[in-house]
Amino acid sequence: MATPASIRNHPLHPMLVVFPFALWTTAVVFDVVGLVTGNNALRTVAFYNIAAGIVGAVAAAVPGIIDYFSLRGRARRVGTYHAALNIVALLLFTVSWLLRTQWGAGYVGRDSWLPELTAIVGVALIFPSGWLGGSLVYEHGVGVSREPANAAPRTGRRAA
Questions:
Q1: Whole-number Å distance between alpha carbons of 94 and 17
Q2: What is the pTM of this model?
Q3: Which end of the chain is more exposed for a tag (fewer CB within 10 A), N or C?
Q4: 8 A C-beta contact, residue 31 and residue 77
Q5: In the chain, where the domains are located
């Protein structure tokens, strides 16, 4: 089933989701190592990873929303759960990022673990969400061309 948010039959959403997934997961690793070692530089790196992940998540959400409205039946229900988990994760990471700002640190205190805790919960949500996204592709065929895998590539020329 082709998706509306595609370029030359390549769905955009799966190409973009790798950025927030990798950035947020790495941010949590930096947070944990920074907390264990007391190295605040790692927590600073996590801050910027979270910010970049938020931008990436919003960018990935645009084609995801466009594709969502083309889903029907069970795929639509799976897409709803996938989207809900992603929205909650985005909100948690946004809260985590805001708590790390000067305003947020003044609100919860510089020694609070709340920013890290919200990030950990956010990562815990993107893993099942990724599983559901994979289900949309591999079980429901969203964004998958039904051409056989051994079909000759189209080059625009006729074979001699």
A1: 17
A2: 0.84
A3: C
A4: no
A5: 6-138
